């Protein structure tokens, strides 16, 4: 298969901007995201995180500049991207078995009734095995817990053997154990298959062990930095618009916590700083 080499970036934004309904959502997007990275996309509600994903998928054209994905203009590499949309709760799907739903990730674009090929069933089995739900292949989606259902959604996105996996808020509404199981699945995909992963997330803590970088949308501009540069109390306070603190445990684990003092966010121009983080 024509996999990207680790030397070429997975995503490149060159002075990219996105407009919706006649309004600029964000602009001046200038960064590269490495292949085989795990990147969070963070920003306040309405900052334009989903819009970035849609632009990468070619569902939304950039209003200026360019967006390249897996070495091609956005939209051209669609077949190499697995996409798990926000709130995977399509009520029409509850009667499908897990296997049928995963098969839709392979043949969902083919019109009409057609027999499932042996090779397609093999692909579906591999996707279910990668997400640890092979033993639930015959279960109906409606019978599954939220966590298993999210893993079935990830399996559907994996069924076409993508190089880039994009997930929009995959951990929302999951309990902590299910969140950790999903994160473990993503970790395995990244470590064992070298898959590039992008995750829109509001809470970074559960993802931190696997994140290599983050795109953060601040003041109408998307920035990319490695995760250690993003784990900065001032930057996160500015980003979340509420005081937060980065805490490091004696074991070296970092996490984000509400600022104990609850003081107002410090006013400072982080654009100077974030320019230094651009890669
Ligand atoms: N179809 C549309 N037409 C016009 N404006 C839109 C459309 N969809 C979204 N928007 C606007 O674009 C902006 C960015 O939306 P987007 O969904 O990308 O933000 P987001 O960061 O993903 O938000 P959230 O965290 O709430 O999911 C918002 O102001 C939203 O109202």
From TrEMBL:
<protein>
    <submittedName>
        <fullName>ABC transporter ATP-binding protein</fullName>
    </submittedName>
</protein>
<dbReference type="InterPro" id="IPR050153">
    <property type="entry name" value="Metal_Ion_Import_ABC"/>
</dbReference>
<dbReference type="InterPro" id="IPR027417">
    <property type="entry name" value="P-loop_NTPase"/>
</dbReference>
<keyword id="KW-0547">Nucleotide-binding</keyword>
<dbReference type="GO" id="GO:0016887">
    <property type="term" value="F:ATP hydrolysis activity"/>
</dbReference>
<feature type="domain" description="ABC transporter">
    <location>
        <begin position="11"/>
        <end position="244"/>
    </location>
</feature>
<dbReference type="GO" id="GO:0005524">
    <property type="term" value="F:ATP binding"/>
</dbReference>
<dbReference type="InterPro" id="IPR003593">
    <property type="entry name" value="AAA+_ATPase"/>
</dbReference>
<dbReference type="InterPro" id="IPR003439">
    <property type="entry name" value="ABC_transporter-like_ATP-bd"/>
</dbReference>
<feature type="region of interest" description="Disordered">
    <location>
        <begin position="255"/>
        <end position="279"/>
    </location>
</feature>
<dbReference type="Pfam" id="PF00005">
    <property type="entry name" value="ABC_tran"/>
</dbReference>
<keyword id="KW-0067">ATP-binding</keyword>
<keyword id="KW-0813">Transport</keyword>
<comment type="similarity">
    <text>Belongs to the ABC transporter superfamily.</text>
</comment>
